[in-house]
Amino acid sequence: MRTTRGKPTHDRILLGDSDLAEALAQALGVEEQVERYAHHFHTYPAGLHPDAARDLLSLFEGPRVLDPFCGGGTVLVETRAAGRVAIGRDLSSTALRVARARTASPDEAFLTRLRSRARKLTAVAQEARDMPPEQIYQGVHEWYAPHALYELESIRRGIEESDEDLQPLLWALFSSILIKTSWRKSDTSAQRVKHKRPAGTTAILFHKKTRELARKLAEFAEAVPEGTPEADLAQGDARELRIDGRVNLALTSPPYPGTYDYLPLQHLRRIWFQEDRHEDPQEIGSRRSWRGGTKTARRDWAAATAAWTTSVANALLPGGHLVIVIGDGLTPAGPIDASEITEKAAQVAGLESVARASLERPDHARRSTRWEHVFAYRKPE
User: C-alpha distances in angstroms, 379 versus 249, 317, 322, 329, 350?
Assistant: First the structure.
């Protein structure tokens, strides 16, 4: 989740429709941490603040909402809570795993079965002494204490043997503890930090996360209006968008240029899930793309931004809106202005600019400031 707490706005720029621009700025400027629904049960880098997603959604009408860079599903959760149709696409299988769990609204009978199965898996894992199979072990053993490997492998095997309808949430729960029980510093840092945790704590964490998720999903199920469909989630590239029908609103936060390498950040999870790591599509604006030279990276990012913006514009109904939240990049070569390329891409896609709000906030990690922007565009009738 993108962190905004403790990052007050230093300066701001408002353009276009004055009332809408002010509302965009208010939505982007939220700071308070929220515990609503299952937004925080699984860490995922740089998601929108839940209140920002909720408030931006409220500014635009229409039943069908698309997020072509859905990440962990923040926009989709708030879309379903508003009783609207949620459609999400992302390149990352981890993102989709998280989004499916966060947007689920199962009944109490299902959650009772989920908790019961997790208790059994936890009990078995606490006594486990089998290492993962060789193809997993070789990729992960340097990142975990032996007892953590025993427990994780036991849980993994147990999920494979669980009822098929329980597996999506159990796999998401398994994913949620893979970094926390490792020696990796965090989801966004591959720095190795060894720690000593007693045997059994990995299994206990899995059980604790299950109780947390079940409680949050019960809360969410109460909030989702009756008749609201499940989220439509699938792996897909925003540059070649494939959805059934068109949408009234696309609300998204694409990767900030030069900020993260989203797919490599998931390397431990991808090994545990035995996913192919050699056929990654090119990430838009990834940090590693800027290491080969600013000029080439900027050109490629501009082309990719134009491609995905046009693809999303084609998915909009006439009169529909595209709302983009994006921040400037900060690289060793200097800042990367995200606004100019975003605006050019919208023009190429034939969209009309309605309003824009840009906020300057501190970037504590880089001891600098960063401009974040929210753009509202409209597709002509």
Answer: 10, 7, 8, 27, 7
